[in-house]
Amino acid sequence: MRWHILNYANSCRHGVEHSHDEWRHVINQISEYEAYTKKKGIHNGVVEEDTKFLRELYHERNIKNDFN
Questions:
Q1: Cα dihedral sign, 35-9-18-60
Q2: Residue 64 — very low, low, confident or very high, per pLDDT cuts 50/70/90?
Q3: What share of the chain has pLDDT > 70, as a percent?
């Protein structure tokens, strides 16, 4: 999950557009990853920043409804 989240954020930063289904999948993975890290007591600042970036971008795309 960690790798997928980081890779997805990187692709977004490089202008790759994703479908609404792809977005829903990564948002679900973020929630699962956060639950896992909370349960295990793990902190990962890089993933935390990327998840913040992805949530903000997803919010903007939802408002504009401009999914690929």
A1: positive
A2: very high
A3: 100
Question: Which DSSP helix (H) or strand (E) runs through 19?
Answer: none
Task: Please choose, from the candidates 47, 45, 68, 54, the residue with its C-alpha nearest in 3D space to the C-alpha of residue 26.
Answer: 54
CA-to-CA dists, residue 34 to 19, 47, 50, 56, 65, angstroms: 23, 10, 12, 16, 26
3-state secondary structure of 54: helix
User: How far, in Å, CA of 59 to CA of 63, rounded?
Assistant: 6
Task: Measure the CA–CA gap between 36 and 58, rounded to whole angstroms.
Answer: 22
